[in-house]
Amino acid sequence: MICRILLLLALALASTAQQSPPERGIPPVAPEEVRLPNGKLQRDEILKADYKKTIEDARALSKLADELKTDLEKSDYNVLSVGTLKKTDDIDRLARRIRDRLKRF
To answer: pTM value?
Structure first.
């Protein structure tokens, strides 16, 4: 059941990404390599921070998916709690956040 929900969420995300019109205009100019005071590249530090946030969000997403699965298994087929709906919204929000962060670079 949870696999179906996650599959539906993934398909919904993919369809919304495909429906947006292609952006036209001037291609982005490659930024200069900005170095931080400690000598490291700013881009590398941003990528490391994004990676850590993505891992944390993926853990939270997995935990919410497991909770959703147990909630659905405990409930009756004709009963749906508001908490279950909130968890699906949270799963959607986290999945979008992860996708947006991964598509940034």
So the answer is: 0.63
